[in-house]
Each structure stands twice: as structure tokens, then as C-alpha cells.
Amino acid sequence: MKPEPNALACAGVDEGVALAGATSRGVTRTPGLPQSAVPVSRPGTRLVLYACHELGDPVATLRLLRTRALDRGWVVHAELYDLCPLATRSGQRPQWQLVMKLLTQGDAQAVLVLKEAQIELERRHQLEVRRRLEVVGATAHFLLEPRRSRREVLGRGGG
Length: 159
Prior knowledge:
The chain has about 160 residues and is of the alpha/beta class. The protein has helices spanning about 60-70, 95-105, 125-135, 150-155, and strands at about 15-20, 20-25, 25, 45-55, 75-85, 110-115, 140. It is globular.
């Protein structure tokens, strides 16, 4: 699915980290992260590829995401991207709104993104997106592991 030409600019604006993982007993429960009744790592899972770029080539990113998805046996339902500053909130991105619509309608069960910052930059906004994904029963995969603070690495909370 190609984005509409007028949707390439954001409205009003001139290996493998999974949020839920499968175990022999089902899906692992990670507090505060989206969960799914169907493990997203299972072959045949339908997903949407998403990228947001201020500069650079979103097509190259989508190609990388597509390769990873196909390697895992996932079915790519749509490939969408927005061209805008990463600081633009996800609610102001037309193609992200389409991602959420596809997930809400059940056309796809998951979204694959290079890194979480391509959806939202700020941690508090990332948590809002995670809650929205949880509400619709969808999950997210990130190709690159997010950076963690020293406090998180040492197990003292934070983030």
C-alpha cells in the first residue's frame, strides 16, 4: 500500500525488540507494554511496516523492515511512512493514523518500526502510544533496541 501523495508531509507541519514475547506458556507479560493473544513472532502474523523520516530515505528503511519481516515469516499488510520532523506527535502524522486504523480494524496484528523514536520521541508520549496499542490488541516490534539510561541498565528503575 503506497501513501497518498498529499500524505507524505505531516499535517500542520511545514534485532528485534518485541514488546511482548512468546513463551511455551503463551505471551510474556511485560508491565505497561502492549500484549497480544497471538505472539507477534509467530510466522504468518500480519503486520504494518512504518517509518518516519525528517531527512534520509524512508524507502531504504522500509526495505530493511520488509527483509526482516519476511525472514521471520511475517506477512506484510502495508508499508507506510511520513516525511516530517521526528518531534511531530504521532497524532499529527497521516500515515501513522492509517497504521492505527489498520491495527484497530484487525487488518494487521502488529507494527514493525526501526526504533520507537520513529513513532514518538518523548518517553511519556511513547507510553501513550503503547497504551493505545494495548487497547486495540496490537503489538509493536522495533528492529533496533532502544537506548537505556545507566539507571535502567543498573536496575534502579527510571525511564
